Amino acid sequence: MPAQWELSDDLPEEDVLMIEVMPPWKMYFDGASHKEGAGAGVVFVRLEGEVLLYSFTLTQNCSNIVAEYQALILGLEIVVDVKQLSLKVYRDSQLVVNQLLDLYEVKKPELLPYHNYAKRLIGWLGHVELEHLSKKDKKQANALAKLASTLPMTDKETRIPICKSWVIPPIFSDNEDDTFQE
To answer: How far apart are CA 87 and CA 116, in angstroms?
Structure first.
């Protein structure tokens, strides 16, 4: 601090507005597309370390890059809905990240609506950082996108519990009957 600056203990007799700056959520996203279907995966890591997983079966077949934009937009819509204004977004697709950072031009006209909507959503948030990362760092989002792209589409939401488990088969003696009895 420069020597000519003075600190004052005198505060005005008015209420002081305090703004608490919350650390950003982290968002990882991925899209997957193949001839059987398309899906999007989004992973949020909240302030307390809580992980929120989302997997979306996309209702139309599309290119991989459109699936990427779909995943990004679905994640951004969730963040806008919960009013989380600070976000770090991670993706291994240099194309999407660099298009959003205006380092690459969006050359395909069919991508412009997705690009423009994503930019608008980012604008609604207070602070968004976009960062490129390696493929190995976003395994969960990739797995969710692949899962959603392979599930048959239904009109209803499907909940798939993912549990940790390991089965240890019981050891039977030679005298025990191996058949189940009802």
So the answer is: 18
Residue type for position 166: W
Torsion of CA 24, 31, 136, 50, to 10 degrees: 40
- Would the pTM of this model clear 0.85, i.e. be above it? no
* Assigned token pair, 50: 């809580």
Q: pLDDT tens for residues 94-153?
A: 888 889 888 999 999 999 999 999 999 999 988 899 887 765 555 766 777 677 666 665
Contact 74, 63 (CB under 8 A): no
Q: Give the count of beta carbons closer than 10 Å to the beta carbon of residue 110.
A: 11
Name the residue among 73, 29, 31 with its Cα closest to residue 52: 29
Hunting for tokens 């488990």 — which residue is that?
165
Q: From the centroid of its chain, how far is CA 39?
A: 13
